[in-house]
Specification:
- The chain folds into 2 domains: about 180 residues, Rossmann fold, CATH 3.40.50.1950; about 220 residues, CoaB-like (Rossmann fold).
- The strands form 5 sheets. The protein has an 8-stranded mixed sheet, sandwiched between helices. Strands 2-1-3-4-5 form a 5-stranded parallel sheet, with helices on both faces.
- The chain is globular and about 70 Å long.
- Helix 13 links the parallel strand 16 and strand 17.
- It is α/β, with parallel strands linked by helices and about 400 residues long.
- It contains 14 helices and 19 strands.
Length: about 400
């Protein structure tokens, strides 16, 4: 395992020395690349002693013409000779440069030349992390398939308390090993995923919808593609970049989602219904905007198509996974849905109670109820990690179901 470790300029850079050692202890050959700002916090000699290798500090460090020529292409050599790029701490500045393809030093130039998997461990001030620019850059990087670990919440060096602390070195090292060892165990599979909300029009300018951000469904599509699957993603209106390597179909209403699902069902071997489909719609939408008056109005709503139930009747040998977002009686309601919709698995979570789980959050805490009668609890984790856990359990479940037939 050959790892290029990029160290950004932040107080968390001192923890990167421990990360270099943790990677080496796991059998990695570590090549450290430091930005100029990183060298204000930690000396290159520290990393050289820990890794036994030269630490790269400048894009053009040489003085002679021949050495300058060699250093001019060194970033290409480093990119080609390593299996994984880990950046810790990934500062707001580095994330912005990565997101927009800016390359003005060795690390940012290496990033553009690196063809392998990338793991970023963000660390910065809480307000910097929450800034819309940083969050937009984060979504761009996630959309490229990069793995993100952290940041964690706690007291920061600046005196603030909140998200911004770099993940612990041991956790980053473990994530790096998992990223390299991830099996492409979904090659040959076609995974159909639905994500996000639907919008059911009330008139030409108003609609009924819900708080679903689509993040969980998008994480599942991204994870399945990373594991070798052919992925079809049918998404309601969300503000997320299309996952790389995934066929994405955009819809608005429940009827449009239903039609798209069944138009693309034939090649699917696994169907994951993560979308939060609206339960009701207006059957006859007015052609003109409803005018506000002092009078009270009533709107008659009809049920939308029950896509999951229809899939349960037509799934054949496909593995069918549904979602249940509940505000109470989580396991009872999920078990009822598992049986009545003829699903193989229900992913259940409480919504509206936990700030860092469910709708709109980047993390989730779920319970998996399986057709075998088993139950698996997944603790609070980033949605991408939850997605991989769901896929792990889905593959084990299919083996168990086939063995029982």
């Amino acid at each position: 395992m050959r790892v290029a470790l990029g160290v950004g300029g932040g107080i968390a850079a001192y923890k990167s020395a421990e990360l270099a050692r943790a990677l080496a202890e796991r059998g990695a050959q570590v090549q450290v690349i430091m930005t100029a700002a990183a060298r204000e916090f930690v000396r290159p000699l520290t990393f050289a002693a820990l890794t036994g290798r030269k630490v790269v500090t400048d894009l053009f460090p040489a003085s002679s013409e021949s050495e300058a020529l060699a250093s001019a292409v060194e970033h290409i050599g480093v990119a080609q000779s390593n299996d994984l790029l880990v950046v810790a701490p990934a500062t707001a500045d580095l994330m912005a440069k990565f997101a927009h393809g800016l390359a003005d030093d060795f690390l940012t130039t290496l990033y553009l030349a690196f063809p392998g998997p990338v793991l970023l461990a963000p660390a910065m001030n809480t307000n910097m992390w929450r800034h819309p620019a940083t969050q937009a850059n984060l979504e761009l990087l996630r959309g490229r398939g990069h793995a993100i670990i952290g940041p964690e919440e706690g007291e920061l060096a600046c005196g603030m308390t909140g998200p911004g602390r770099m993940a612990e070195p041991a956790a980053i090292a473990a994530a790096a090993v998992n990223l390299l060892n991830r099996k492409r165990d979904l090659e040959g599979e076609t995974v159909l995923v639905t994500a996000g909300p639907t919008r059911e029009p009330l008139d030409p300018v108003r609609f009924i919808s819900n708080r679903s951000s689509g993040k969980m469904g998008y994480a599942l599509a991204e994870a399945a593609a990373a594991r070798g699957a052919n992925v079809i993603l049918i998404a309601g209106p969300v503000h997320l970049p299309d996952p790389p390597g995934v066929k994405t179909i955009k819809v608005q209403t429940a009827q449009e989602m239903r039609d798209a699902v069944f138009a693309n069902l034939e090649p699917a071997t696994i169907v994951i219904k993560a979308a939060a489909v609206a339960d009701y719609h207006v059957a006859n939408v007015p052609q003109q905007k409803l005018k506000k008056t002092a009078a009270r109005i009533s709107i008659e709503l009809d049920p939308t198509p029950d896509i999951l139930a229809e899939l349960g009747q037509k799934k054949g040998d496909r593995l069918l996974i549904g979602f249940a977002a509940e505000t109470e009686n989580l396991r009872q309601e999920a078990r009822r849905k598992l049986l009545t919709k003829n699903c193989d698995m229900i992913v259940a979570n409480l919504v509206g109670q936990e700030e860092n789980a469910g709708f709109e959050s980047d993390t989730n805490e779920v319970v998996l109820l399986l057709a075998t009668g088993s139950t698996v609890s997944v603790p609070p984790s980033p949605k991408r990690e939850v997605a991989d856990r769901i896929l792990d359990e889905a593959l084990k479940l299919r083996l168990a179901l086939h063995a029982a037939r």
